[in-house]
Amino acid sequence: MGGITLSQVSKRFGTTEVIRPLDLEINDGEFVVFVGPSGCGKSTLLRLIAGLEDVSGGAILIDGNDVSNTPPAKRGLAMVFQSYALYPHMSVRKNIAFPLKMAGMNKAEIAKRVDHAAHILSLTDYLDRRPGQLSGGQRQRVAIGRSIVREPQAFLFDEPLSNLDAALRGNMRLEISELHQNLKTTMIYVTHDQVEAMTMAYKIVVLQNGVIEQVGTPLELYRNPANLFVAGFIGSPSMNFATGLAAEKYDATTIGFRPEHLKLFAEGGDWHGTVGVSERLGSDTFLHVNIDGIGQVTVRSDGDIDIRYGDTVSVTPDPARIHRFDASGVALQ
Amino acid sequence: MATQQSRSAARLMMAPAVVLLLGWMLVPLSMTLYFSFKKYLPLRGGDLGWVGFENYSRFVSSSAFWPSVQTTLIIVGSVLLITVIFGVLLALLLDQPMWGQGIVRILVIAPFFVMPTVSALVWKNIFMDPVNGLFAHLWRVFGAEPVQWLSQASLPSLIMIVSWQWLPFATLILLTAIQSLDSEQLEAAEMDGASPLKRFWYIILPHLGRAITIVILIQTIFLLAVFAEIFVTTGGAFGTKTLTYLIFQRVLESQNVGLGSAGGVYAIILANIIALFLMRIVGKNLDA
Ligand SMILES: Nc1ncnc2c1ncn2[C@@H]1O[C@H](COP(=O)(O)OP(=O)(O)O)[C@@H](O)[C@H]1O
Ligand SMILES: [Mg+2]
């Protein structure tokens, strides 16, 4: 219960086509992440599924039923907004109870469900406060609480963590993943942050300019990016690219190689260059090396490597991990 | 204003305004109090000495006093009710995307820029005239006897005129309040299964609470002093004599400054009672 199918769904605002006709299958119980740069149409796609926008073409199916013209409330989906969209004049309890009250549920059942949700989300002590008296993380939890009490077919999250600080974001990421393990309900999660996508998703949908660039598990996208865009977007630090002679050696227009798949030597490697700025994280060091004939390349190496700005080094890529792309940016097998 | 220095600087700079405002208020107030204890008839002997509370007891015991208080309350209450209800509805309407939105908004705001005297004259002569008024023509089109608006339905007519003047103000304030509502809240409510009516009741109306409070408080101040509209239309006849109008009659028509001043003091007391009530009922919306 909760499989969602998009079939040739498209969306135009006036004359600009924000979502090009696309197909997508989301299985019941899956945690799917839509990821892409800002303005690529992630929110629009989510709002189409939610029913907050009408499709310009194609159909949306939930459990095989066409819901393209069904109002949002009847689709059985719950949404958590980026701004949380809590009702400021209602207490936390009333906020969480609101969807149940609208559904005409009896008071005893509402109280039971609200208490249960508050317990899961550790909000029990805050039930009588107003949203304005809560911290960002707590507001986020209230928004999630409001969506879980309805026991929806699927959850839709629109960049729910982007207003939180880094530490809290890490925690909430875990909590949402934990929630998905417990509820086993379909979740669609929108983010522009590829780290969130990689860490949380079962399936990642990479979007760019209203087009699906690739769909796959995090590791599939990491290992076999379908094109230059996905290759550069997934992975942190991002993939290095080289064109020209270096690429021709591999029969490609462009080659890509990840920082973690480069080896450093004092001398005798394939490429030579000078070390620029190095970023020391303790566990790793990211070196920005200026390689002759290729340009700036990021190399990942040990945390305690002894290297300085201006040193000359030699770099060799792992030949098995080199990604090759043709002139149009599509990956070559 | 954190430091000692900035605080005293602030006080110094505010002083002229405070002194001016205090003088503005205190001088007329003390003069009113002063005259209210005197028999003062400018055209019939001038200052005839102190009379104690006689003016006060005469003003209240006049047969016109309680009806005028009642009329005042009816006008203030009805205009508030009409402007708030229609103001909310108009604001909702104007918030919808529509063709010619800018012009429609200007048209709706326009009545506020018409002087009370002018608008009352326009209503009296163009709309409500029993012979040549537009309403009279309209009534005749349907074969009905034209209504003598300002004599037969004087109070409702007056309320209509004053409401027409104040509706733009209420609409404007409420429209800006509606526009400040986060659209995601409405979308969240929609996903939560709230019908448009319930969204209005549970989300929009509470959001408007503060704006409605402001509309009520500001309008009350001005509505208690409605004068030009009555002067121009009925001249206080047909049960449209408000407290303000009664005071005007005592001072200028009967040339009894002492009696009028006592009425002025009563008006101040009435205004304060109403203000107290309003602050109790709606003032809590302004907190937080
Ligand atoms: N209501 C709208 N009217 C017109 N254009 C819109 C509207 N909503 C979104 N867009 C446009 O659609 C594109 C995608 O927006 P959005 O889905 O919000 O991007 P994302 O969430 O990926 O950052 C943007 O270029 C945006 O300007
Ligand atoms: Mg977005």
Structure characterization notes:
The complex is a heterodimer of chains A (333) and B (288). Chain A has 333 residues and is an alpha+beta fold. Chain A has two domains: 4-231, Rossmann fold (3-Layer(aba) Sandwich), CATH 3.40.50; 244-325, OB fold (Dihydrolipoamide Acetyltransferase, E2P). Chain A has nine helices and 19 strands. A six-stranded mixed β-sheet of chain A has the order 6-7-8-3-9-10, with helices on both faces. In chain A, helix 2 (92-102) packs across helix 3 and helix 2 runs parallel beside helix 4 (136-148). The two termini of chain A are 37 Å apart. The mean pLDDT of chain A is 92. Helices cover 73% and strands 3% of the residues of chain B. Chain B is built from 13 helices and two strands; from the N terminus they run H-E-E-H-H-H-H-H-H-H-H-H-H-H-H. In chain B, strands 1-2 form a two-stranded antiparallel ribbon. In chain B, helix 3 (65-95) packs parallel to helix 8 (154-179) and helix 3 (65-95) packs across helix 10. The A-B interface holds A 50-52, 71-73, 77-79, 81-83, 85-89, 98-99, 102-103, 132, 146, 150 and B 182, 184-185, 187-194, 198, 202-203, 206-207, 209, 288. The complex binds adenosine-5'-diphosphate (ADP) and magnesium ion (MG). Magnesium ion binds at residues 42-43, 159 of chain A.
Give a short account of the largest sheet of chain B: 2 strands, antiparallel
So how many helices of chain A?
9
Total count of strands of chain A: 19
Main pleated sheet of chain A: 6 strands, mixed
Largest interface: A-B, 24 and 18 residues
Q: Helices and strands of chain A: which structural class? A: alpha+beta
Helical residues, percent of chain B: over 70%
N-to-C series of helices and strands of chain A = EEEHEEEHHHEHEHEEHHEHEEEEEEEE
Relevant CATH superfamily of chain B? MetI-like
Rounded Rg of chain B: 24 Å
Stretches of chain B where pLDDT is under 50 for at least 5 consecutive residues are: none
CATH top-level class of chain B: Mainly Alpha
